[in-house]
Design brief:
Order of helices and strands: HEEHHE
Structural class: alpha+beta
Radius of gyration: 12 Å
Shape: globular
CATH topology: GMP Synthetase, Chain A, domain 3
Number of domains: 1
Helix content: 25-40%
Strand content: 15-25%
Strand order of the largest sheet: 1-2-3
CATH class: Alpha Beta
Distance between the termini: 26 Å
Length: 78
């Protein structure tokens, strides 16, 4: 199975100017996995994108990568 935390971190590090400040935390329940992406305040606009397009694309990629996991995955950006 794909390591979702590493995948999300790799995607975010490729987008931002300060990749050393990218962190991903994971919270897991019975049916859901919540990944929280934290970036530097200056990089927030790069991760969200215009009208949230990049954030939506990141969420779509992570959901596609988790399709075999059997749990619902959500991505929070802070």
């Amino acid at each position: 199975m794909v390591n979702l935390q590493e995948t999300l971190a790799d995607i975010a590090k490729a987008i931002v100017d300060n990749p050393d400040q990218v962190t991903v935390t994971k919270e897991e329940d019975e049916n859901t996995i919540t990944l929280t992406l934290t970036v530097a305040p200056d990089d927030m606009g790069m991760v969200i994108g215009r009208h949230g397009r990049i954030a939506k694309a990141i969420r779509t990629v992570i959901k596609a990568a988790s399709v075999n996991g059997g749990k619902k995955v959500s991505v929070d950006i802070r």
